[in-house]
Each structure stands twice: as structure tokens, then as C-alpha cells.
Amino acid sequence: MSDFRTYAIILAAGRGERMQADKNKMLMKIGDQSLLEICLDRFHRNESIDHVVLVVPEDIPAKQMLEEQELLKEKYPKLEALLNGGKTRQDSVYQGLQAVENHAADHSGRKLVLIHDGARSFVPSAVLERVVTALKSERVAVVAALAATDTIREIKDCVLTDLDVTRDKIFQMQTPQAADLDILLHAFELAQKEKFQATDDIALLLRIGYPVRVIAGDKRNFKLTTPEDFEMARLLFAAGYFAE
User: Fold this and answer.
1) CA-CA to 153 of 20 to 30 Å: which in 1, 97, 102, 213?
2) Where in the chain are the domains?
């Protein structure tokens, strides 16, 4: 039996109001695939990922969930669970972690979990490989990130201050954000107990003093949030920018 079992939790539960679409943005199509299918395909084809958990909006009816799960499992056999998310991103991740805990109960080795925003649909396989390799090399958390390339300045009340922010210490967080299942559950359960909300998963791990390693992200791994993002992705896709 392998010492490692690797899970990906893909979050597709956001409302996507900023996309100004009449449906979940993950169902919007680029080429002949939806953003959800593109993202699932990236994880399914990657040999470092053993199982996938998909978290969708909380108001999708159970019957529809079951139908969708059967259809998706036919196409993506690594998909082990499709479940409703919660009211916040943090709630949705915790639901996914509990599903991983149930599925991995029979595994005695390390259980590695990659948490990924489905709206970063074009995550390159090389990023996934770097995250998993870093996780396996030592017991730490790992996050994909990009170094800031623009000049960074601080503002106050919409006016520039004299303070420059040292650019070489500023990184833009991406996903996957990853760690062992047990430490993630501990961090999320503590935050739930103390009613603490964070904007990403790494914040909860830093909060409990857990070491976090940064690996190189990728500009292609940007988050599709607005109509402008979607149009840019559509044009870049047509130009072959996301090809691997």
C-alpha cells in the first residue's frame, strides 16, 4: 500500500455574482467544455491526484446532485463525492474535508489534500506536480503563488503615502493550497469553534503556527471572476495559451 493518498477538493460552490451571468459561472463554456469540465479534466489527467471531491452550491436539489454525480463519474472516475457547500468558502472547504475523511478512513498512510478554486480552471499540470512533490518531501503546508512584478505602494483614504512596500516580499496567492488532512481538519475545526473566518485556507494554517512553503504558481492559473476575465480566457484559449 502506498504511504500517500492524494485528494483534490475542487470548489465550485460560489455564486459568481461578479461574473454577471444568469447561471453558475462554472457552467459557462469556453470552446466545447464548461469551466467545470476543464478544471475536472486537469485534475483527472494528473497522475499525482488519486481522488477528487467536488463541492457545488448548497441549493442544488439532492435528486439533481445524484444525477450529476452519475454523469460526471462516468467521465471522471476519480470523482469520489459531489456535495453541497456551505454559506461561505470556508464552510464549503470544511464539508469537503469531512468527505475526504470519510473516504480515506481505511488508509493508514499520509492523506494529502489539495484545495482548489474551480474558477482557476486552467491550472497547469506542472503546478499540481510541484504542490504534491513539496507535500511529499516534508510535512508542511504548500501554496502556489506568484511574485509581485509591479511597483507596490500603500495608500490611505485614496491618497498615496510615502511608504513603498518591498516588492520582493509580496506574493499573490493562488490555489491549490494544500496540507495533510489531519492538520487541515484541526485548523478548520478550531476556526469554527472560535468563529474565525479567513479568506483562504493558508490563513487558517498560519494562524495555528503551521509551516507553509511557497511553490511557483503560473500566470495561466488566474481566477475567472469578472466578465472581462472570461473574455480574456476565451481569447487566450483560442490562441492556444492554455495548451500543455
Assistant:
1) 213
2) 4-238
For the domain made up of 4-238, the CATH class stated in words is: alpha beta
pLDDT tens for 42-93 read 999 999 999 999 998 877 766 677 777 788 888 999 999 999 989 999 999 9
How far is CA 49 from each of CA 6, 114, 187, rounded to the nearest angstrom?
5, 9, 23
Place of cell 510541484: 130
Which backbone phi and psi does 148 adopt, to 5 degrees?
A: -70, 135
Grid cell of 226 as nine digits: 469578472
Question: Which residue's entry shows cell 511557483?
Answer: 216
Q: Per-residue pLDDT tens for 196-227? A: 999 999 999 999 999 999 999 999 999 999 99
